[in-house]
Amino acid sequence: MSLLFPGYIFCKVDVAEKHEIQMIPGVIAFGANADPMILEGEIGAIKRILESGHFYWPCPPPTAGELVQIEQGPLAGLQGIFVARPQHHVIISVTVLRSALSVAIERGAVKPVSRAKGRSI
Questions:
Q1: For residue range 45-91, what is the model confidence (pLDDT) as tens digits?
Q2: Sequence-ordered list of residues with C-beta below 8 angstroms from that of 11, at least 6 positions apart, any chain
Q3: Could you count the other beta carbons within 10 Å of the beta carbon of residue 99?
Q4: What is the mean pLDDT of residues 24-37?
Q5: How confident is the model at residue 119 (pLDDT cuts 50, 70, 90)?
Q6: 4, 13, 68, 92: which could form a disulfide with 110 (CB 3.0–4.6 Å)?
Q7: Neighbour count for residue 68 (Cβ, 10 Å)
Q8: pTM
Q9: Domain segments of the chain: what residues?
Q10: Which residues are CB-contacts of 49 (< 8 A; sequence separation ≥ 6)?
Q11: Which is nearest to 72 in space by CA: 93, 99, 54, 46?
């Protein structure tokens, strides 16, 4: 993940250890403001993308598009924004970093999700 998000290290620690972590040489800041459940879901999604065998690349968060859920393959269950150009792909947001990963996907592998029910991870 470090190549996808240079300068970031993801770890699960007790917030009480914040001072000790900030004393490590090279640590500039320690972010503990993210909702742990959302963060765990996003990190889990990133891990699944990295292990899926699908082609992926970092990208800015989506500003518009159709919310879909991946229905087939190793990424089944993940939700993101479907984009059809230049090739079909789904953008999975990483809200804590204000970033995203775009994953190449077949159009037939996704289905639209109602915005009232869905949540992008």
A1: 999 999 999 999 888 888 788 899 999 899 999 999 998 877 788 99
A2: none
A3: 15
A4: 75
A5: very low
A6: 68
A7: 22
A8: 0.73
A9: 15-112
A10: 56, 75, 78, 92, 101, 103
A11: 54
